[in-house]
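User: Hi! I'm a student and our assignment asks us to look at how structure tokens line up with a sequence. Could you show me two examples?

Assistant: Happy to help. In each example below, the sequence comes first and the structure tokens follow. Example one:
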Amino acid sequence: MGRLVRKPRLAVAEPQDSDFGGMFGSRARQAAPTADTGDDYLLRMVKFIPGEVLGFSMVVNGILAQAMVSGGDNASMAGFSVTSIAIGALIVGCILTPLFCWYVREAGDAWVVNAIVSTIAFPFWSYLMGAVAFAKFHDGDLAAILIMTFSAVSGLVAPVAARPKVAEQIAANPNTKEGPRLVESLTA
């Protein structure tokens, strides 16, 4: 199981060995087209959580929360207010989320869809985790309702099936080559 949501693949007919360049299909081996349905609802819902970036954000917010406790509402670090630094850290987390999705992508991943949904999810999860940027507005009950609703809806976002390119279709089914056929060569 990869880290990102997988794209479903359309069914592609398996190449069949036959005589006379595919004129007479083999009845003994009729393979059904194979298809990959991609990730299901629960896997998508879990994979859209930007866990790695949230872990980074939790460490930063732990440091900022400690500064808020020791300095009060007027706490500052290096001449900047802690609240401004927390908002900056939230923005940096929103920027790092799609970059992380791009970095860990593999062939067959729907990384663009994953990046979009995970970037939208990041502020919701940060609010739930008690990010310092939301300290004045934080309500644990509202955060739980928001994250449950967002997670339920995000699982409904499914990537579109990837269509094989023409070259891949020809490679998968070499019997469809255009060229002189047995019937045409006899009449020529």
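Example two works the same way, sequence first and then tokens:
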Amino acid sequence: MGNKAKALIITMLLLMLTLVLFVKVPMHAKNKVFVYCGAGLKPAMDEIVKLFESKYGVTIEITYGGVGAIASQFFASKIGDVFIVADPLYFDKLEEKGYVKLYSKVLVFTPVIAFARGNPKKITSLSDLLRSDVKVGLGDPRVPAIGRAAKEILERAGIAGAVYNKTAVFTSTVNELATYIKTGAINVAIVWRAIAISYGLDYVEINSKYNVKYPVYAVVLTTTTNEKLSKEFVKFLKTEDSRRIFVEKGFTPA
């Protein structure tokens, strides 16, 4: 076997080992609930999870990511108890594939145009995303829910192609967009209002003629191995304590 072939085999083995180490697939446990959750909910969910764990003396293992990425992970593993999904497309996919045991609508996401404090580029509307002096970031429409929402908004406004052609970065989560604005890597992005608030960004509302709203569903999966505790967790997301945390972080309870 030649040196090149050996090197290729070693590289492939290392890649497989990396995937095993870093792709998080939940394992069954009696006092655990395994949750898939859109990354945009992290600012509130981290606190809610701690509160639930303290109250019930259990463990919530939560995987955050763009909805497309975590949905692919779930469809491949078919392991998990709860899926908190902020994209109607993926809720429909879960339902079509028979993975929805029950669900509850917990929030409504509203996109806004976000930018740095003080609005240094004087952004006022979607048309400003076309300016040559404005560096734009968007969610990848194939991965995070905000990417699909932004695509719908820009298509409604008739400027999707022009904005996409000048977009500096496409991200796999909405959180990355907020971070890029904070660091100055981009000037503006379409993000959820709650993310703009959580990250201390300024923002303007999007004209209602173009804007969309995405419901957020908490789904108990048919693959759950802890149905009772999973139902308790989904129910907990609607309690006053959870609603208070959601509101504090800028989310809109359903």
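Here is something you could point out in your write-up. The CA atoms of residues 163 and 227 lie 45 Å apart.
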